[in-house]
């Protein structure tokens, strides 16, 4: 199931795994409004049980401190894998991972398969 929601955020719940994928819009600054739309949709898809999240930051222009706070504290996230492709994506992910303290395990990956393997391992323990 895939759905484009408010502020250009796409949310996907895969049939093949438990992870909920949140795709942030490329080429634009991620504000608190965009982050709140993403977090709300994650919460709707996650339901009452904690679920792993893949947060795709590929190509975003920037992320505000307020957006970082919202995205790194998504209610219902068992663990968050930040996914990106470029060195800029890595810098943005490092900014997000620098939030203290994070309420769940989080890491940055350039491969979705590695992100899924990490999520499976972290959420199994």
Basic shape: globular
- How far from one another are the termini? 27 Å
User: How many domains, in number, for the residues?
Assistant: 1
C-alpha Rg (nearest Å): 13 Å
**Share of helix, binned:** 25-40%
CATH topology name: Ribonuclease HI, Chain A
Round the mean pLDDT to the nearest integer and report it: 89
Oligomer: single chain
Spatial strand order of the main sheet: 1-2-3-5-7-8
Which structural class fits the helix and strand makeup?
A: alpha/beta
Instruction: Please report the number of helical segments.
Output: 4
- Order of secondary-structure elements: EEEEHEEHEHEH
- List unreliable stretches of 5+ residues: 1-5
% residues in beta strands: 25-35%
- Specify the CATH architecture: 3-Layer(aba) Sandwich
CATH class: Alpha Beta
At the fourth level of CATH, the homologous superfamily is yp_829618.1 like domains
